[in-house]
């Protein structure tokens, strides 16, 4: 730690190019307004950070760590006013995520009404710190969208607690305020549920993992190595606390009625055929899904969710809902009986019945559901939030119906897609599809919506599916710098300008370097 701090200080002193001209202020996401002034505030090893409220200690500590990584200086936090300081104030009169930052030769004042917005302001300040110090300026800033999310799939590959924290650090750096945690899928159940111990004893392990890209025509190659991992309830609480300290809300996802093979393997009575099943070793969509005809399925889900609600305070609970083939339900007597008894038209309405039933149960406990856009099929209640991933069309439809919407269309937001179309460039194995930084930046979450419907669009999200991503270094390579583009869509959609974004991106790149994050460097040479 000491060595790396010294090294960082040396690099800071010797190597950082002196910023000049319009390069002085470079912040991503783009602030609402920036007014530059002459002069610079010199940050030194003795610059104090004054907190005017104990609630600001944690944001200040997070900032100190960031500055130490960047400059080698470790500023001290104090509650006593001091000259030549960075002063953090809490005052009413600002929107929850809005802040105002004023830097002069004499010091820096950062004001907001919440600790969350103070942390946003500190993330901006972190980017302003250059070789000469902090350029004098006045920045007023607030986000366009309240929901700015990033998903991590920990089923296809398991990420240990420390790696999940690192992922959360990336979110925090980019002012992303929701962490969508995809905890269950066909290839692994990753959350300890005390009343159903088999879910982790059996469902968190698979026999082996696919090597290379999966082909439905085969042959496929497997590594022959058993694979597994799960979070204890203490681990989960630790992550939720870590995220909360960074003012990031964790939204858990428990997939249903499809993508449930790991649960079915653990308790085969959950499926229509009774199994036996196997935690999947391949990628794709499984025909075996939760049986919608059995009451025991609903009791299981409710008991699982009971424990989930104790761990996650978020209002929104993600119930999945995507890619649920109806094949088993079609030939299942109990599902057909349910369709008749409930007066449903078909299996799509049966899925809608399933989702609404869980929604009612959650609403009775003060929560709301969020689901992938397939939950629209067969009808949906007004209160369900739709995550639009099959393009923007399902989200547009849902917004017109009056439902809240998160835009996460795959052609803009799926960070498991390759970052370059140039095969000559080194890219780790990934999904065959291609998504450039520029393409992420092009997303307009309000596209094709009339103004009265804008309020239905809560925001945007990027998704990291991990079929081909086995560790956090690879995950960083996939999300950086595309997450910066997504962040600007969510924060500054009304003032996007791609060339200007690319110009500003260098300040984030310095932070990626200082923190030792992996990123796709060639994307900075000629961003496609
Ligand atoms: C579709 S998006 C899926 C995931 C895959 C992903 C791969 C969604 C709700 N379902 O199960 O991992 O594509 O890109």
Walk me through the structure.
This protein is of the alpha/beta class and 528 residues long. The protein has 2 domains: 2-141, Chitobiase, domain 2, CATH 3.30.379.10; 147-497 and 518-525, Glycosidases (TIM Barrel), CATH 3.20.20. The chain contains 19 helices and 23 strands. The strands form 6 sheets. An 8-stranded parallel barrel has the order 8-9-16-17-18-19-20-23, surrounded by 7 helices. Helix 4 (161-173) links the parallel strand 8 (147-153) and strand 9. The longest helix is centred in the C-terminal third of the chain and has 18 residues, at 498-515. It binds ligand TNX. Ligand TNX binds at residues 322-323, 372, 389, 414, 416, 431, 465, 467.
Count of individual helical segments: 19
Describe the strand arrangement of the main beta sheet, using strand numbers. 8-9-16-17-18-19-20-23
Average pLDDT level: 93
| CATH class identity of the largest domain | Alpha Beta
Morphology call:
globular
Heteromolecules bound? ligand TNX
The overall strand count is 23
Uncertain regions: pLDDT < 50 for 5+ in a row? 11-21
CATH architecture of the largest domain: Alpha-Beta Barrel
Estimated share of beta-strand residues: 15-25%
Please report the distance between the alpha carbons of the first and last residues. Answer: 37 Å
Per CATH, the superfamily of the largest domain is Glycosidases
Range of helix content: 25-40%
Number of domains: 2
* Major sheet characteristics: 8 strands, parallel, barrel
Radius of gyration: 24 Å
Alpha-beta classification: alpha/beta
CATH topology of the largest domain: TIM Barrel
């Amino acid at each position: 730690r000491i060595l790396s701090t010294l090294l960082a200080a040396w690099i800071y002193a010797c190597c950082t190019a002196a910023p000049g001209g319009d390069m002085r202020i470079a912040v991503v996401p783009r602030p609402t307004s920036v007014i530059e002034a002459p002069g610079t505030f010199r940050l030194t090893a003795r610059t104090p950070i004054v907190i005017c409220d104990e609630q600001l200690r944690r944001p200040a500590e997070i900032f100190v760590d960031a500055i130490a990584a960047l400059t080698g200086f470790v500023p001290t936090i104090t509650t006593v006013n001091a000259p030549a300081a960075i002063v953090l104030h809490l005052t009413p009169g600002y929107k929850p995520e809005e802040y105002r930052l004023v830097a002069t030769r004499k010091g820096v004042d950062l004001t907001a009404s919440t600790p969350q917005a103070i942390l946003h302001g500190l993330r901006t300040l972190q980017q302003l710190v250059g070789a000469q110090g902090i350029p004098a300026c006045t920045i007023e800033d607030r986000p366009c969208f309240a929901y700015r999310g990033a998903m991590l799939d920990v089923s296809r590959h398991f990420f240990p607690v420390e790696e999940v924290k690192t992922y959360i650090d990336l979110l925090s750096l980019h002012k992303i305020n929701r962490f969508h945690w995809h905890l269950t899928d066909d290839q692994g159940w990753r959350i300890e549920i005390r009343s159903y111990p088999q879910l982790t004893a059996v469902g968190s392990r698979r026999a082996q993992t696919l090597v290379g890209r999966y082909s439905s025509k085969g042959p496929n190659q497997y590594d022959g190595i058993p694979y597994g991992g799960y979070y204890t309830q203490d681990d989960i609480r630790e992550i939720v606390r870590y995220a909360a300290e960074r003012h990031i809300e964790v939204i858990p996802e428990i997939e249903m009625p499809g993508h449930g093979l790991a649960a079915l393997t653990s308790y085969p009575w959950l499926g229509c055929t009774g199994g036996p099943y196997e935690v999947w070793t391949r990628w794709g969509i499984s025909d075996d899904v939760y049986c919608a005809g059995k009451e025991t399925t609903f009791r299981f889900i409710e008991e699982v969710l009971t424990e989930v609600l104790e761990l996650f305070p978020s209002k929104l609970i993600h119930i999945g809902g995507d890619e649920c083939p109806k094949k088993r339900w079609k030939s299942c007597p109990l599902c057909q009986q349910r369709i008749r008894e409930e007066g449903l038209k078909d299996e799509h309405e049966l899925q809608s019945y399933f989702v609404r039933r869980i929604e009612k149960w959650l609403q009775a406990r003060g929560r709301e559901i969020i689901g992938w856009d397939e939950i629209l099929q067969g009808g949906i209640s007004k209160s369900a939030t739709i995550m639009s991933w099959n393009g923007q069309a399902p989200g547009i439809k849902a917004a017109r119906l009056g439902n809240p919407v998160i835009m996460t269309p795959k052609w803009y937001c799926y960070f498991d897609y390759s970052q370059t179309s140039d095969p000559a460039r080194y890219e780790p194995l990934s999904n065959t599809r291609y998504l450039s930084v520029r393409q992420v930046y092009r997303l307009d979450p309000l596209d094709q919506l009339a103004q009265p419907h804008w309020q239905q669009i809560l925001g945007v999200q990027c998704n990291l599916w991990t079929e081909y991503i086995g560790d956090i270094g690879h995950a960083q390579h996939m999300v950086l710098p595309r997450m910066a583009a997504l962040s600007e869509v969510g924060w500054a959609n009304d003032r996007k300008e791609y060339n200007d974004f690319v110009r500003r991106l260098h300040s984030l790149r310095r932070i990626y370097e200082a923190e030792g994050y992996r990123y796709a460097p060639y994307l900075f040479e000629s961003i496609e």
